Structure formats: C-alpha cells, structure tokens
Amino acid sequence: MLRLIQLELQKLWLNRASRVLIIISFILPFTVIILSSIKIPFFGLFTLELGELGIFNFPIIWHITTFFASQFKFFFAIVVVSMIGNEYSNKTLKQNLIDGLSKKEFILSKFYTIVFFSFCATILIGLATFIIGMYYSSYTEANIVFREVEFLLAYFVKLVGFFSLCLFAGMLLKRSAFALGFLFILYIVDWLVFWGAYYIFGTVDSAFKVKSFMPLESMYNLINQPMQRIAMTKFPDKSDMMYDYAVHWYEIAIVMGWTAIFIFLSYRLLKKRDL
C-alpha cells in the first residue's frame, strides 16, 4: 500500500498544476480561522466579532468547520480527475502496466491516494477546529468538547466518497473537463430522480427520501447546513426551526456503498478497456 501511495505522490508532486491545486486544497479550508477573527465595524457604533457570537463554541464548532471545509473539496476533485486524464494523455498508464503494475494495483493506488489525502485533510481540520474552539468556546469540559466529533468521520467519508466518484468519472471519460462536466450532469440526474419520485409518491418528503440515496445528495446529507442550527441557539423558543442535523450511521453506510461501487466500476472499466 505504501509503495502505491508513494508512486502516486511522486507523480502528483512532479506535476506543477497538481502540486499547486493540492496546496490550495489544504490551505483554503483553514480560512475558517481567518473567519473566526473577522471584526465588522458598524458605523463606529459597535464592532461585530464572529468569534464572540458563540458560533465557535463546542460542540457546534465541529459541525460548522467541517461543513465549511467540505465546500472546498472541488479543488482536490480537479486533482483526482486530472491525474487520470494525465495517465491517458501522457501514456503513463500503459507504461506502468508494462513495468509490472497490475490493473488492480493501478486502481488501488488511486484509491489509497484518495484515502490518504482525505485522512490528512480530516486531521488538519480536526486540529484547527480544536484550536479555535479552545480559544473561543465557553465550554472546555471534555464531554462537551468531544461530543460531536463524529462530524470529522462524516467529513472523511464525504471526501473519500466524492473523490471516488471523481475517480470513476475520470476513468469513464478520460478527460478532466468532461469528467467535471459529468458531475454537473449527475447533479441534474439527482433532481430528475427527485421529481420522478414526487410524481410517483405525491409528497416532497418521500421524494427527498428517494433522492437521499443518490450519490451527490447522500454525500451532502452527511453534514447538513449549520445555519439553521446557529439560528436555533439564538432563538431557542422557535420550535419551527428544529431539524435533524445529526450524523447518522445509515447515511455513512450509503456513501460507503457508493464509494465501493465507484471503485469497482473504475476497475471494471480499466479491466475491459483496450489500452
């Protein structure tokens, strides 16, 4: 496994564009630290400091930072699809197979790299969240600090699932631009499934339940938007704001299932394709 990861890291680091995108994909999520220190003056009357509003208190901060950081996953998605496109355009895929790398090892090398980068990103976001929370949070008891740390697991699974989808798109279409376009088409398909389910079952709730099994929607559902939850902390008497923001095991299972499907399909494509 380490040999395959080292092989992929060497390829990515030697490519200038991939190197820049990897650095950006790791740096951008840390803008949440800058966000926590923003001070907004209002006509000299008072200054609004986001860090003092309580949104960086434990345990809600785990929810906020992982949701915010997950919005930047598209930068590494470009790396994933481009590393497949480069394999075909530079003929390195064929050369690797000639040099003794099996097709299974080739796919596993990509998947292991995806898991490696997702794990690194999760660790970094976890450390950043812990540091910000310890600085701003009013609660420092261990049972509160680590109460919702499962959002980190959801973040990790979300990254692995999304990048595995990008890997499949890259293997299917061989070109980075087409692969990224495939993601947009898949987004449209998700909504077509929603409207089809709505037509069949007649209710929005049933349609969303069906849509929750689709790839992109299931990945999004792992970490729901935290804005409504933030509003709930400011207006606790507003019962109409209540919603389910927790991380559920079945949501993780759905994404892991799609991840396995995408990796298997990528392998089948490569195995059947004439190189």
UniProtKB/TrEMBL annotation:
Q: Report keywords, A-Z.
A: Membrane, Transmembrane, Transmembrane helix
**Transmembrane annotation, as ranges:** 20-40, 60-84, 111-132, 152-173, 180-201, 249-270
List the residue ranges forming a coiled coil, or say none.
Answer: none
Transmembrane helix recorded as keyword: yes
Look up keyword Transmembrane helix and say if it applies: yes
Kindly name one Pfam family recorded for this protein.
ABC2_membrane_2
- Per its record, how is this protein called by name? ABC transporter permease subunit
| Species per Swiss-Prot/TrEMBL record | Winogradskyella bathintestinalis
